[in-house]
Every structure is written in C-alpha cells, then in structure tokens.
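Morning!

This is the sequence you dropped in the shared folder:
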Amino acid sequence: MQRFGTISRVATLLGIACTLLLAGCGSTSSPTTPSSAKKVTLITDIGGLNDQGFNQLSYQGYKKALDKYGFTRSVIETKSQDQYVSELTQAAQNSDLVIGVGFLMANAMDQVAKANPNKSFALIDACPAKDASGACDNLPNVAPLFFKEQEAGCLVGAMAAQMELDGKAKVSKLLGQSTIGAVGGLEIPPVQHYIAGYQYCAQQVDPAVKVVINYAQSFEDTTKCNDAATSQINQHQADIIFQVAGGCGIGALAAAKDKGVYGIGVDSDQSQINGNVITSAVKRLDTAVYDTISDFQAGKFTATPPTFDLKMDGVGYGTVSSDVPADAKAKADEYAQKIKDGSLTVPDSIKG
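The structure's back. Tokens below.
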C-alpha cells in the first residue's frame, strides 16, 4: 500500500509539472499579435513601393505595424491616377482603416470616405477635398497627415548655401558658383513647401545665392528629372541639386553625379543612392503611418492628428556626407534650433 501511495503521489506531481509546462508553452505566443487586430490597407501613389522615397518609406511604417499587430497584409500599388476611386473603394470594402499615400488622392478620398462613413481613412499630405480648389472637406472618418516640409527644406538649404560660401574660399572645386537648384515633380503643396524652405533659408545664409527651380511634371520618369537637373547645371552652373520629385528625382541625383556636382535627396535618407548625395531633406512618413495604425488599433483614431514638424521630429535632415564642411552642418543645426525655439518661422510659399 505504501508503494502504491508513493507511485500515486509521483503521478500527481508529474501531472502538475506537465500542466505547468503546457501553460508555459502557451505563454510564448506574442502579446503584440492580437487576434482582434483590425485590417489595414495601404494604397501607394504612382511610383510603387520601390521608389526609394515617398511610397517606400510609407510602406516601412506599414510593415512595422503589420509585424506588431499581425493583421493581414493588404497593399495596393497604384499605376494610374484614374484608379484612385476604384482602389479606395475596394480597400474600404475589405478593411477597417485605409491609408492613401499622396496629395493627388484628395478628391477621390473625399468621395469614397463619404460613401463609407463607418470606415476610417488616413491621407498623407492632404485633406479630403470635394473640388479642384483643394479646400479641406473636414470629415470625421478621415485623418489628414500633414508635415512641415518647409522646415526640412530650410535645413538643407542652409547647409547648401554655407557650402557655396565655403566653395568661394576654395574648400571644394565643385562649389562656389553661388547657384543651387531644385527639381520638383509636380507643383503641388508638399513639393512647393520643400522648395520654399530651401530657397528661403539658403538666401538667409547667403543673400547672393541664386536658386533655380524647375518642375519635371512627373514623379516617375527619371529621364525628365535628369534632363531638368542637367539643364540647371549646364545653363545656370548650379552645383547643388535638390530633388523633390519622388522616383523621378533619382534621375536628378544621377545627373548631379554625372556632372560632378552635389545632390540632395528627399523624403527618405537617400545617401546610399550615389556618392555625390551630401544629405537629404527627411520626412518621416514611416513614423506617421505607424503611429496612425497604432492609434487606430488602440481605439484612438482621430480626424485631427498633429502636424509632423521639426519640433516633434517629424521632419529633419538625413545622413551628412564627409564632403560637407563642419560649419555647413553647424549652420543647418543653428537653423534647426531657431525653428524649434520659435525665433524662425519658415515660409511655405516660393518667393518670386
């Protein structure tokens, strides 16, 4: 009987141990992947996920949220502006939150969001607009995600102008013509904001600097941006080219390298594109997308999100090349501090 009792107690202890082991095994499932995660669709603008800028950076924020929350991946790559309404409609039917990437979706977003009042939407760089004027149609189910691009443009403009001054002192054989360029994609507000800040702060640092501005009328065709940048370099002797044209702008950076001058990237850190890129005007779309999805998953969706500015680290500048003199980087940092402390307000419209 004693032996039987001992065996019984051992069996009981083994049962408890197994139960604890199974419970422990069960606890290894990720707490950040709730089964109740709401589905989110990202719709890129034309240019696709591999534009090395705007769309790609937005997708990085989406992917980070996808990894955390475990909802089903749903990404639509727009091929034509004519598809905006149909793609937004399709996404609204299959998702809880739809994020549109780009100013050009403003009218389509307004139409689809009104038709789907029980679904939530977010739109990068624009608010829903009911007509061609672009005036905001404030809807309770759409979060417009705005950035102060002019502040990022200011920093790289200040850096560029200081390099021009340094170039006159023979710091670099590539510089010293007192002319810098900006190649935009289309004349839409985010592009103009970047260029306005670039122009304004460059001329604050060096009133004699000339800023040549052209638009390629594309965010995709690298040849058009290459031609625009080449013209600025050949005809105006621009020796720093700021690309504000998405995937098209990769052509402008290529032209700068081919002609032996410097380039400045946009939106994402584009220092890896070629060795002549001295820095980039950074817009943290990945942060905006990730934060929007996180708030939505937590039940904190708002149609009035804050503007992503320099003070909240929503914009800034990227990796700085070793070709940039210390005083040029210091000048950008000086202007950043002025913006943060309120002593400098950067305009968002281009002069002249």
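Headline: The chain has two domains: 40-145, 149-283+310-341.

More detail when I'm at my desk.
O.
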